[in-house]
Amino acid sequence: MQTSEYIAELSKCVRCGSCKAFCPTYDEDLTEPMSARGRLTLLRALLNRQIEPSPALNDRVFSCILCGACENLCPPRLDITEAMYHGRNFLKDFDRRRKYLRLITRFSLKKPMLGYRVAKMLQHAASPYLLKKGLIPFRLPILSHPLRDDQQVYKPEKKIGRVAIFTGCSINFLLPHLGLSLIRVLLRLGYEVVLPRGEVCCGAPLRGLGLEKEASEMARKNHRIFSKLNTDAIVSLCPTCIVSLKVHYPKMINGALADVLDISSFLSDKLGYGQPHPLSSFTSVTYHDPCHLRYSLGVRHQPRQLIRQSGAEFIEAEGEGCCGFGGFFSLQYREISRNLLKKRIDAYTVTDARDIITACPGCMLQLSSGSKERQVFHIIELIEDAIY
Ligand code: SF4
Ligand code: SF4
């Protein structure tokens, strides 16, 4: 977003307050600056030089989870999250609290394999310290091999199409078994699967910290690689990556990618309707909507349909809302994050479903950290179980 567009966006706000309805941070802290309207008012005052950058101001602007729950509620269609990104980009130079987080993130995303090796080497010795210092939200499982290697192409027995996977950092480094599950499902359906050489972070963590320039570099690299693949679709198990590729890249680098789809949308018309699978090992499940899938991509029906088709009993939980992860949000605003997590876990406990299904690796890690009685699975695990 250019500065002129940013000014135009901020001036669209008519202060109606509709954006507060589902705002998780406002729900936890009923003060105006913890809502979208309050944050936008602060950013406007900053732009008009009525206030100066300060730790308190930074704190309010960086406390937005960027969940998107406010986006579709705004009558003049103000692009609230883009305004937040722009504000953070401006404030980053005055923001000492996240200085080291920026340094570490910038380094580890620019040199991901080096960062991965260091993290793997230090994980046992350093985890308690990093947890205490709030530099990781919970003990992260760093496995011996990431999913991506060099260019990988998997051939099905009988090819009906070709699909590229955008693995994203969490699947690649922390949860590669989910990526393998996705590859097996796509092969089973007859898709040739490509994991191209050179994929980098989608850029979302960098943008969230105000590092717009670095995020745009990542976006350009990914765009260059994925636009040349000649595939029927680019799919990912991470809704945040999909939002980056599909929604943010056109705004950041004027670079749209064709046929970018979250996995539930991609598979929703490919597994057959009304054919419950009798052999599923998932008996009863409830479902957690990842914010970026639900709000930014508008995908709510498809995962539920896939769950019902799997043969598992589906029990809808009361209400909906953020699990409190939000990437770095869970590190910086631990109390709010924990409260949000507890609310969702309580809602899923009431359903009495045996397992919790979600469609986002970040939500999966967060919900797992708060759920003692129920296991949390990614929807691709349920799909694989149902079709094999
Ligand atoms: S993006 Fe989410 S946390 Fe941020 S203002 Fe909107 S609803 Fe609130
Ligand atoms: S809903 Fe839109 S117009 Fe209304 S207060 Fe929020 S940002 Fe402003």
Report the major sheet. Answer: 5 strands, mixed
Helicity, in percent? 40-55%
CATH class of the domain at 284-387: Alpha Beta
Please give the oligomerization state of what you see.
single chain
Total helical segments = 19
Strand order of the largest sheet: 1-3-2-4-5
Arithmetic mean pLDDT: 91
SSE order, one letter for each helix or strand: HHHHHHHEEHHEHHEHEHEHHEHHEHEH
Bound molecules: iron/sulfur cluster
Terminus-to-terminus distance:
45 Å
Poorly predicted runs: none
Looking at the overall shape, the CATH architecture of the domain at 284-387 is: 3-Layer(aba) Sandwich
Question: Which structural class do you get from the secondary structure elements?
Answer: alpha/beta
Strand segment count: 9
Could you tell me the CATH topology label of the domain at 284-387.
Rossmann fold
The value of Rg in angstroms is: 21 Å
Q: Beta-strand level of the residues, as a percent range?
A: 5-15%
Shape: globular
